[in-house]
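Weekly modeling sync, notes
Attendees: AB, CL, MP (scribe)

Item 1: holo prediction request
CL wants a bound-state model with 1-benzyl-1H-imidazole before deciding which constructs to order. AB pointed out that an apo prediction alone won't tell us much about the pocket. Agreed to run with the ligand included and paste results into these notes for async review.

Input as submitted:
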Amino acid sequence: MLNGVRLTLEFATTISLAVFLTVPLGCHAQSSKIAADHEVTSSAAKAGQFDAARAYDHVKALVALGPHPSGSEAIKKAQEYIERELKSFGLQLSLDSFNGETPRGSVPMKNIIAELPGEKRDIVLITGHYDTKLQAGFLGANDGGSSTAAVLETARVLSKTKPEYTLWFVLFDGEEAVVDWSAMDGKDNTYGSRHLAAKLKGDGTLNRVRALVLFDMIGDKDLDIKREGESTPWLVDTIWKTAHELGYQKYFLNGEQYISDDHLPFRDAGIPVVDLIDFNYGPGHSYWHTNLDSLDKVSGESIKVVGDAVLGALPEIFKYLSNHSAKAAKPSSQ
Ligand code: 1BN
Ligand code: ZN
């Protein structure tokens, strides 16, 4: 069903990445032969594509670990997997470990951050959560798995480039509630993103953060994403425009929804944010936070649709940021 648009999309994504993201010199051998040049170009183009099969394999690997809520033994395996993958792309990791103070006591948590240096020091965050909801038998193929897969595959594709802005690929821990989303005065959720936003504010790095893209629940075989109303309009518009140009209007709908999620701590700190979330999962949303959120409900092609839209929109996002300097209240970092 999603295959019909793939060729057009691959072409469009390759072109836009080629124009706006500089592949570092020395990556590809020079050749005087046109045929050899063509071969080099097409293999580079392939390497520059978001790969649906790789995304699906990430979800499969995470699901195979079993339920991995914050603080569990299984989440340590998920962390090892994510860290190994990000390192294999040649990215520099930093680990933001902390204790989440939950209704069930103190829980060790860890945000995983991989940096891709850009031409500018200012940072765009590409994010998702990797913890699964604390519930016996809950695998979170879509809710936890798909967001992790999208961040990892986006990181792999972009790691071959030198982007205009520095990119941080961030996997948040502790997105899910330990007891209930509204427990503890509405604070039993988004532990990782709240911790990172506060930490970056405290050490001054938040002044360099110019935008945040959040993937969540984007692996549904029946993909339909509405505009998220807490998100920043120009960022939503930019991604929707790109998605529609890529032929993805069927998946990027024009309706609106309001979702409380990992983007909010950064939005509240004044950062432009967008939450890409398909909050219509299964008949009558019946798979969400149930043990029906399993591998068979997820498609790598759906994850690719959203990954392609973000990759394709990045040049426009960078252009917008270049034309709109950081808020005057924030001291300039450059
Ligand atoms: C998304 C996936 N969310 C949790 N898992 C955020 C959310 C929480 C969305 C409560 C709606 C209600
Ligand atoms: Zn959830």
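Recorded for review: The first helix runs from residue 6 to 20.
Action items: CL to compare against the apo run; MP to circulate these notes.
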